[in-house]
Design goal:
By secondary structure, the protein is of the alpha/beta class. The chain contains 12 helices and 8 strands. The chain has an 8-stranded parallel β-barrel, surrounded by 7 helices. Helix 2 crosses helix 4 (66-79) and helix 8 (163-179) runs parallel beside helix 9. It is an enzyme of class 2 (transferase).
Length: 286
């Protein structure tokens, strides 16, 4: 039996950057998914508001509520023994007063038992990151393609393709670091810019579509395991399994066997004793 891992902490994550040990991160939204990811050795688990897409079927993350994030966080944290669990603060839950931001993050930590929260944005939310950090809440930043701002960005577009964007992203990364963030996710950022930002920060960067120079990588669970077999391929995703095909084929076989009266077979049922048979049919089987 594999030896149980020690819990991953903020100190461990910092040491991993310093020693150039890559950090692995995946999303999870339920108990069994989180359990499997944790047992597989993942370092960080993100309860992402991407659940709006892959669990709820929305076109964006915007409809996801705080209560829904807490619900899924509860399921995940019941399963995890080692990985560092982070939960997204959903759309418009950290852009008002600091009191409201602290209250919302506090609910995720207190009710969901998450170890930290993730916020999208740069210098404009640094004051919130600082307040959360001072209150004892570990914060992961998120720069580049920020799904909660997809309509402002004009769609799902590569970020950092010109000098102005590059300068702004570096300024935002530095602002988050100075505010106390423990790590920063870089999404759909050009490889050169991601490498530059990573080299200038003392905290880890976690890339998704940002090249191999980040301190770690994150993928959405359903993307990396091929849960939606007919979905268009994403260039920055590698599918490590084709779970969707296996599920569809398995259910299809079940339907066929039910329709053909092949399931359940004799070995799937239970026989009554003579007393029950006497009661039901008025006779016992010898």
């Amino acid at each position: 039996m594999a030896q149980e891992r020690k819990p991953v902490t903020t100190v461990k994550l910092q040491k991993m950057k310093a020693s150039k040990e890559p950090i692995s991160m995946v999303t999870a939204y339920d108990y069994l998914t989180a359990k499997l990811a944790d047992e597989a050795g993942v370092d960080m688990i993100l309860i992402g508001d991407s659940l709006g897409n892959v669990i709820q079927g929305h076109e964006s993350t915007l409809p996801v509520t705080l209560d829904e994030m807490i619900y899924h966080t509860k399921a995940v944290t019941r399963a995890v023994k080692s990985a560092f669990v982070v939960t997204d603060l959903p759309f418009m839950t950290y852009h008002g007063s600091l009191d409201t931001t602290l209250q919302n993050a506090g609910r995720i930590m207190r009710e969901g038992l998450s170890k930290g929260v993730k916020l999208e944005g740069g210098a404009e939310i640094a004051h919130a990151v600082k307040a959360l950090t001072q209150a004892g809440v570990p914060v992961v930043g998120h720069l580049g393609l920020t799904p909660q701002s997809v309509h402002v960005l004009g769609g799902y577009r590569i970020q950092g393709k010109n000098s102005e964007q590059a300068r702004k992203l570096m300024e935002d990364a530095k602002a988050l670091e100075e505010a106390g963030a423990i790590a920063i996710v870089l999404e759909l950022v050009t490889e050169e810019l991601a490498e530059w930002i990573t080299s200038k920060l003392s905290i880890p960067t976690i890339g998704i579509g940002a090249g191999a120079s980040c301190d770690g990588q994150v993928l959405v669970f359903h993307d990396m395991l091929g849960y939606e077999p007919d979905a268009p391929a994403k260039k920055f995703v590698k599918a490590y399994a084709q779970v969707g095909l296996a599920i569809r084929e398995g259910i299809g076989q079940y339907v066929a066997e039910v329709k053909g009266r092949k399931f359940p077979a004799e070995q799937h049922g239970f026989k009554g004793d003579n007393e029950v048979l006497q009661y039901l049919y008025g006779t016992a089987v010898k």
